[in-house]
Write a structure and sequence with these properties.
Layout (H helix, E strand, L loop, with lengths): L2 H52 L6 H11 L2 H13 L2 H7 L2 E15 L3 E14 L1 E19 L2 E10 L1 H7 L31
Antiparallel strand pairs: 1-2, 2-3, 3-4
Helix pairs in contact: 2-3
Length: 200
C-alpha cells in the first residue's frame, strides 16, 4: 500500500473519530442542559404548588383545592383528597374565616433527571382564625417527589418532615469509624494557663 493511501486511510479514520467525538459531546451537553432546565422548572413549580396547596382563604379555598388536584398524582393526590374530604376543609375555612399565608423560607432540588425531581421546601405557614390577633405560625419542611408528564410537573408524593421524623431518620453508628479522632471532654482538656499577676 502506498504512502498516500495510508495517509488517506488514517485521515479518514481521524475524521470519523472527530465526528463521533463531536456527536458524543453534543449529546452530553444537551443532556446536561436538559437536566439543568428541568431542575429550574421543577423548583419553580414546587414553590408555586406549595402556595396553592397550603394557603387558605374563604374566597379562594375551593378554587385552590381544585387547582391542587390538577398537579397532584398517585399517593399525593389520594392523601390530599382524603384530607380535604375527611376534615371538610372548604367548609371549615369558610365558617371559621381561616386565612393562611405561605412564606417560602428556602427551597432546593435534592436530585433530578430530565423528567423526575426530589425537591425540599422550607415553608412558614401563618394562620389567623376569626380574628387577626390570633396568629399561629407553623414552620414546615416538605419533600416532594415530582414527575414531568407532557411538559407539566406533577407531585407524586409529599413527605412532611418534623423534628420527630428527622430524629427517626438519623442513624447512630454502632462502631467507631476507622481513623476517627475522639473529641476530648471538658475534664480531659488541656488546662489554659491563667494570666500572670502584674507586680508592683
Amino acid at each position: 500500500m502506498s504512502t498516500n493511501r495510508i495517509l488517506a486511510v488514517v485521515g479518514g479514520l481521524l475524521v470519523v473519530a472527530a465526528v463521533a467525538l463531536a456527536v458524543f459531546s453534543g449529546v452530553r451537553y444537551w443532556g446536561l442542559r436538559a437536566e439543568e432546565n428541568s431542575r429550574d422548572s421543577a423548583l419553580q413549580a414546587a414553590t408555586e404548588y406549595t402556595d396553592t396547596m397550603f394557603a387558605r382563604n374563604p374566597k379562594t379555598v375551593v378554587d385552590n383545592i381544585n387547582k391542587s388536584m390538577d398537579f397532584l398524582t398517585g399517593n399525593a393526590k389520594d392523601e390530599f383528597q382524603k384530607n380535604v374530604s375527611e376534615y371538610d376543609i372548604a367548609t371549615k375555612v369558610k365558617s371559621d374565616k381561616i386565612v393562611s399565608v405561605v412564606t417560602i423560607q428556602g427551597a432546593g432540588v435534592m436530585s433530578n433527571t430530565s423528567d423526575t425531581a426530589k425537591v425540599l421546601v422550607y415553608m412558614n405557614l401563618s394562620t389567623t382564625r376569626n380574628t387577626v390577633e390570633d396568629v399561629q405560625i407553623d414552620p414546615s419542611r416538605l419533600v416532594y417527589d415530582m414527575v414531568r408528564r407532557d411538559g407539566k410537573w406533577l407531585i407524586s408524593a409529599i413527605d412532611i418532615l418534623d423534628d420527630d421524623s428527622l430524629k427517626s431518620r438519623v442513624q447512630k453508628a454502632e462502631t467507631v469509624p476507622s481513623g476517627a479522632v475522639k473529641i476530648p471532654s471538658a475534664s480531659s482538656s488541656v488546662p489554659v494557663p491563667s494570666a500572670p499577676v502584674p507586680t508592683s
